[in-house]
């Protein structure tokens, strides 16, 4: 047997070496699938871990190119009506324009499908914050019942008689104190002291009281006994009945005594700020009425349109409409004018459709006097009232513990607001030198009667 030759064996080994290298290279596993998955999920460690596991699973899981969109939400037939039912405007349009980065990068709402795919989205607004003021937060009360007509044939006949009363008062000139109330006069004790020891031929008292009040005994005694006018009827806020009540008082005073020269309307919460003699002198020496007449008040248009946008036309144009205090003092000629009026009453007697801006008694008298005899009026009220910071339709009420000499002196020292004084250049108020004294003040609570009577002789009636 021949010994093997090493050369052929070496040659055969060299021929097989390239095949071994090729086989080794083609069977080495690729690491690129795992490293690329890890890089793609680098922002979320949980997602990155799942991606690596998927790469290890290899061909057992078929990769997806894009996740399927979520199912669309149920359709809303009228999203505006849905949100508006809660008393707030709809915000579905704002919700549809979700925040998206202008470069194309998803923003806050990036996980939601685009608006083109699912349409606008309903957004629920948070509930309104609770109001600390329980009065303001409470629902507005319903307006008083409105009759079909405020015409009263008995009133019409009575007013015609009163309008024919003498225009000139007999001497001595008297003051008609007219109280418009729905019940007893809680400050009657103070008024008794006011009229005490005063000659009866210098004044008269007239009371318009709600006849629906039932009392075992008459609540009006002393100087107020038998002073309720027979034509009294029920009077309600936000209705022309307050105008009618004041007109009945004027008619009763015109017919009742030809000596009545000045007619002062008062509320049950009013008090005198001076003695009777001082009060009478101011009123009877004037040849003008004292009634607040304001022509540029905020909210005047809403008051004018309270019965309907054009309901006051053509008799009362908006430029002729005026605002003023409910309480005034009219001279005899103007009292006759009020009871004789038919034209303006035909508009102011209409029921209001906007009762929250309906204050007929604060508009009828200033408008009527302004249209007929503006120069015959001092455009200011002599009844002090504090409206500062009040938005509920009621002025400040003075409590018993607040009554004292300092309060009376402060109320006396205030100056009336005159309707013909207007700011110039937006800041400077032009005054004409007038300064009539306040004769009355309101509102005082019933419990204030005793402390008021305690300082009456030494403070209130000491001029």
UniProtKB/TrEMBL annotation:
It is found in: Membrane. Pfam families: Branch. One of its GO terms (molecular function) is glycosyltransferase activity. Its main location: membrane. Residues 1-24 form the signal peptide. One of its GO terms (cellular component) is membrane. It is a single-pass type II membrane protein. It comes from the Eukaryota. Residues 56-154 are annotated as: Disordered. Residues 66-75 have a biased composition (Pro residues). Residues 77-96 have a biased composition (Polar residues). Keywords: Glycoprotein, Glycosyltransferase, Membrane, Signal, Transferase. PANTHER family: CORE-2/I-BRANCHING BETA-1,6-N-ACETYLGLUCOSAMINYLTRANSFERASE FAMILY PROTEIN-RELATED (PTHR31042), CORE-2_I-BRANCHING BETA-1,6-N-ACETYLGLUCOSAMINYLTRANSFERASE FAMILY PROTEIN (PTHR31042:SF60). This is Glycosyltransferase BC10. The lineage of its organism: Eukaryota, Viridiplantae, Streptophyta, Embryophyta, Tracheophyta.
